Amino acid sequence: MFELLGIPPQALFGQVLLGLINGSFYAILSLGLAVIFGLLNIINFAHGAQYMMGAFVAWMCLNYFGINYWAALLLAPLIVGVFGVIIERVLIARLANLDHLYGLLLTFGLALIIQGLFRNQYGSSGLPYQIPPQLTGGQNLGFMFLPNYRAWVIAASLVVCLATWFLIEKTRLGAYLRAATENPTLTQAFGINVPLLVTLTYGFGVALAAFAGVLAAPIYSVNPNMGADLIIVVFAVVVIGGMGSILGAIITGFGLGLIEGLTKVFYPEAAATVIFIIMVLVLLVKPAGLFGRTT
């Protein structure tokens, strides 16, 4: 059927794979943004810089300390998450009673500072990060060649996204998080340390961004601008899914990545703007987003 349209099947499935890979990063990053916005009501503009930090920490672990990819996959989110906790305690917590615009401006400034520091130290040309030996090569599926590392990225993203959804929606800790979002004063009256919960939630959202950065390091070059190039698209994904919606971030992230990949096959000229066109249409029909709640 696709050959009748003049589209080779290999090109179609290749773009579908690329769309799923991009969707994996969209889903994890928008999930982190949704988690942070859901509890802190802060639009974390530093999210792209924290994603970049995850990739750089993995690169530094390998090149400075000889720590391999698998250990870095655990260490980098932990290190960057601790950095996020410090940022929340020292800076963001001071803006808790102010207009949300101040939090947006603060995190935007943080993003510029972080990117500038890394650019001054490492330049903008990009640094290579090798695929781990266990995931080199690929599988010939007949209709396409599937690189092992790309398959791993998609599978790991799905597992992390679903585990996060389960944690927030189906566990007691998640119930505490939702209660603190709805009524922090009443939640604290029941003996729950809401400020600590808020701090750890921000650190967890930052750690998700760093995890995505480690996954991206072997695919894209590790450079200070990698987050800046992605964060605008991720914000569009979050708006389409619904600000603060965990399920919306996951489904919309993967779905829009796939749509973007298919657009590159059928109408390449619109590939760079299709997500933003969808955002405009969704906001016209449902301003709260596909899975968002009107407040």
TrEMBL record:
Transmembrane segments: 12-39, 73-92, 101-118, 149-168, 189-219, 231-259, 266-285
PANTHER family registered for this protein in UniProt: ABC TRANSPORTER ATP-BINDING PROTEIN (PTHR11795:SF442), BRANCHED-CHAIN AMINO ACID TRANSPORT SYSTEM PERMEASE PROTEIN LIVH (PTHR11795)
A biological process term (GO) from this entry: amino acid transport
Family to which the UniProt record says this protein belongs: Belongs to the binding-protein-dependent transport system permease family. LivHM subfamily.
Keywords for this protein: Amino-acid transport, Cell membrane, Membrane, Transmembrane, Transmembrane helix, Transport
Compartments in which it is found: Cell membrane
Pfam families referenced in this protein's UniProt entry, alphabetically: BPD_transp_2
Cleavable signal peptide: none
Molecular-function GO term, any one: transmembrane transporter activity
A GO-annotated cellular component: plasma membrane
Main location group: membrane
Membrane topology: Multi-pass membrane protein
Protein name: Amino acid/amide ABC transporter membrane protein 1, HAAT family
